[in-house]
Write a structure and sequence with these properties.
The complex is a heterodimer of chains A (113) and B (112). Chain A contains no helices and twelve strands. By secondary structure, chain A is mainly beta. With 112 residues, chain B is mainly beta. In chain B, strands 2, 4, 5, 9, 10 and 11 form a six-stranded mixed sheet that branches. The N and C termini of chain B lie far apart (41 Å). Chain B is globular. Classes of the chains: A mainly beta (113), B mainly beta (112).
């Protein structure tokens, strides 16, 4: 079965650079979530989209932005990167018509040096 | 905001032992989810619970949705080496686009 696809899997950027992470949800899923997980931490909610509209916002820095496109894929844009942005970034998706089960991608490792 | 208290934080057990972990919340959730995460990988869904009182099994794993909707537990029977990892409970509210709130995780170690 198709899963949530994230790219790239690994990314190394320098401080003050910009990074873009992509997420392709499971086909037919209408909701996308972004989470950030620092080393040894639990995943922290950043932002979510339902039917291409932002539906909720968590602890997402102002330097970050995200959007969901017409084909339902989503991109997380991170600018003016800081060392503390180094983390595993997860995308998750859900189809609201099938209960509340959320499925996660394998994550994108961002290392800021 | 909503918070989940997951315990224990870590467990050291012998292979073959049974394991129990739980999550409690001050808020009501409509859905309880249990995930396992291996290092560098995304959380993998183990069990999803949708109704208060629901008891669901997945192989050697059993989880229950508490009657009060404020707690859930996960049991693993006859642990094996591949059970090592971090187990997260997660709760979701009643609105269809509600985000998932994660517990802090239980790190399971199996002693040789």
């Amino acid at each position: 079965a198709a899963g949530v696809i994230q790219s790239p899997r690994h990314l190394i950027k320098e401080k003050r650079e910009t990074a873009t992470l992509k997420c392709y949800p499971i086909p037919r899923h209408d909701t996308v979530y972004w989470y950030q997980q620092g080393p040894g931490q639990d995943p922290q909610f950043l932002i979510s989209f339902y039917e291409k509209m932002q539906s909720d916002k968590g602890s997402i820095p102002d330097r970050f932005s995200a959007q969901q496109f017409s084909d339902y894929h989503s991109e997380l844009n991170m600018s003016s990167l800081e060392l503390g942005d180094s983390a595993l970034y997860f995308c998750a998706s859900r189809w609201t018509g099938a209960g509340n089960t959320i499925y996660f991608g394998e994550g994108s490792w961002l290392t800021v040096v | 905001g909503q918070q989940l208290n997951q315990s224990p934080q870590s467990m050291f057990i012998q292979e073959g032992e049974d394991v129990s972990m739980n999550c409690t919340s001050s808020s009501i959730f409509n859905t309880w989810l249990w995930y396992k995460q291996d290092p560098g990988e995304g959380p993998v869904l183990l069990i999803a619970l949708y109704k208060a009182g629901e008891l669901t099994s997945n192989g050697r794993l059993t989880a229950q949705f508490g009657i009060t909707r404020k707690d859930s537990f996960l049991n693993i029977s006859a642990s094996i080496p591949s059970d090592v990892g971090i187990y997260f409970c997660a709760g979701q509210g009643r609105n269809r686009d509600d985000k998932i709130i994660f517990g802090k995780g239980t790190r399971l170690h199996i002693l040789p």
